[in-house]
């Protein structure tokens, strides 16, 4: 497998992902982990992504304008310990304005979490950073959102942690590492 050709293909996929197709962001990120020494299975996976993109070429980012107030809507999720090398979790966040994404990112968490609730709580920390940035950008453009931003989170344990930020012995390290972000939001 020629790594130069593979790197070129993954680079094209990253460009497409960033500009118009966030639905393939996770798989393209996984493919980019093997740029140095790709195998045949990585090439085949990248080709499958191309086939998927071709079969769904009518999909993409669409922004819908309105004369009403601007509303930031955001979603967050995490997978718990999915990296088989070091058991770190991946946080994901998508911030939307006008029913179209303006921020979408997935990021390996710096620390290994001990539960799915902790992984989701760390993802909420990334969420807060991105929502604050988006709201600041809107304010600079004269389109400040007056209402609170809705948090879309599916893990009840993480929701309980976020609402009751007091001391929890099992989650102390997670709360300490997220404290700066939460302090900014409150």
Keyword list:
186 residues; alpha+beta; Nucleotidyltransferase, domain 5; 2 domains; 4-stranded mixed β-sheet; 4 strands; 15% strand
How is this structure best described in words?
The protein is an alpha+beta fold and 186 residues long. 47% of the residues lie in helices and 15% in strands. It contains six helices and four strands, in the order H-H-H-E-E-E-H-E-H-H. It has helices spanning 3-19, 25-32, 40-55, 116-140, 156-163, 172-185; strands at 72-79, 90-97, 100-108, 150-152. A four-stranded mixed sheet has the order 3-2-1-4, with helices on one face.
Largest sheet: number of strands, sense, barrel closure: 4 strands, mixed
Oligomer: single chain
Average residue pLDDT: 80
Instruction: Categorize the overall geometry.
Output: flat
Give the helix/strand class.
alpha+beta
Q: Enter the CATH topology name of the largest domain.
A: Nucleotidyltransferase, domain 5
Order of helices and strands: HHHEEEHEHH
Q: Which stretches of 5+ consecutive residues score pLDDT under 50?
A: 172-186
